[in-house]
Amino acid sequence: MKGPDLAMEVTVISAEDLNDDSSVFGFRLRPFVTAFAGAAAVDCDRLPMPLQRTRLADGSDPAWGDLLRIPLDPSFLVSTRGGDDDDAGICLVVLSKRPLGGAARLGWCRIPPADVLDGLRHPSAIRRLSYALRHPRHGGRSRGVVHVAVRLVGRDINRLLRPQPAPALPPQQPGWGGVAMGIPVVPLGSPPCWSGFGVDSPPVAAARMPGSAKDARPWSSALTLV
């Protein structure tokens, strides 16, 4: 059965401030860029074969405009929604051809899924991005900049991006914490009122105010609710 049709198109536009200080002979830079899918940042140190790569360019500020198409696994989309493969991404490695020996590695960067699946536009819309290049020999510090334009393509994009149904919530168990219970407030100086709670009200004694007996009146047992 054929897998989902999903890929990222990466147009490698140009680069700036490239430098190869690994060569003692000072060879002229002949840079090119490779791109491939990697499950983690460490995978950018391993170049798969065969390589998808741009043409050779010249100098420390090269320009290409070459389009590379990298097949993707659906986990590339899941990683932005809390999947296990949170380090998925596209590795870009900039190298320089040398007359002797293999190509010199000038630096690398990684395009994470969140840069394409940002929720602002459809993933098939072109996004122009720039990344600082890293080099393990220099403690991961920046070694130039690469400029790219990226987008997702494929027939299965909309189906793979369809939100999954939310998990059903467990039924609420009876007990405390469901409904807040309010306690009525009695006016200051009033005796407690027990009516309405299944307890007979205690006898209320008449409060005699200074003066004649006709001034005597019982306390009010009314509640003030707030």
Automatic annotation (TrEMBL):
InterPro entries: C2_dom, C2_domain_sf. It comes from the Eukaryota. Residues 1-127 form the C2 domain. PANTHER family: INGRESSION PROTEIN FIC1, OS06G0128800 PROTEIN. This is C2 domain-containing protein. It comes from Zingiber officinale (Ginger). The lineage of its organism: Eukaryota, Viridiplantae, Streptophyta, Embryophyta, Tracheophyta.
